[in-house]
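Usage

Read records sequentially. Each one opens with the input sequence:
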Amino acid sequence: MKSVAYGVQNATSPVAPMSIDRREPGHHDVLIDILYCGICHSDIHQARNEWGGSSLYPMVPGHEIVGRVSQIGSHATKFKVGQLVGVGCMVDSCRHCEACHDGVEQYCDDSVFTYNAKDPKHGGLTFGGYAERITVDENYVVNVPENLDTKAVAPLLCAGITLYSPLKHWNVQPGQKVGIIGLGGLGHMGVKLAAAMGAKVVMITTSASKAVDAERLGASEVLISKNADDMAKHAASFDLIIDTVPVAHDLNPYIALLKRDKTLVLVGPLDPLEMHGANLITKRRHVAGSMIGGIAETQEMLDFCGKHNIVSDVEMIDAQYINDAYERMLKSDVKYRFVVDIASLKQ
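and closes with the structure output:
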């Protein structure tokens, strides 16, 4: 079926209106009328082919999708017409590998991304959420709590789960000291989620100007990483640190903040990495990586957010403003996530 969308034709073209084909719902599919789609920084990287030539065109970005089910396949049982649902960064996986069996489909070598991927089952390319509708296998769709601010839910499908997953995997407990490096689209979700888990959250930043906002979001304290004396006071005191900064920076000062046997988790594609061995071996510290979450964990995250009334801080835009939003994101000029009102696509 023909659908209105916004996308790019190549690495240098602006985001512009286009028409795409969506498949009719198969036996286990649901058709979703999209209401809102968040803009992730990875949308810019992929639209502009900044990740090693991996971009496929034409491309419709968007993997933070919230909408309502408008049609279900003949054998689909998990959702009903009219139900509020979400779609995140993936729309399929192999379903038989160890990762899939363990419920961590995000680590499946054959996972199918929501956009900028070849669709091995249906042919062609996957197109994302800057569009009026999307057809997805019901096993890769999640229920969205109705009590939440719907437009602000969209970034939970990427930014939210990217921070929730390591917080759960490393078993954050009430009273533990958790550091979040970087107060952006990812970092602000980390502060909210860790605080709701009962942790003492310390926002670690290079900018003192972010202190007020960090505390509003739930941080107990703000640590200015450029202040050597303050960093020394916090040495060997953190139970977990999540680093959301996606550009190269020195990890060694942050590793020194960890207690014995504790972990610094990277959630951004940080390259290159240089670490002092002594900083690790003297306290058996760990540096690890993490990405989004599986479908079950994403549902768990949304249920948690529904219980604690957690959503992203968003700025709503019309589709015609996406290119300007991209430029503003490159300047970190948003608090903290742009969300596209999909109703504006037809204006």
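Summary fields computed downstream for this record:
- The chain is about 25% helix and 25% strand.
- The CA atoms of residues 263 and 286 lie 5 Å apart.
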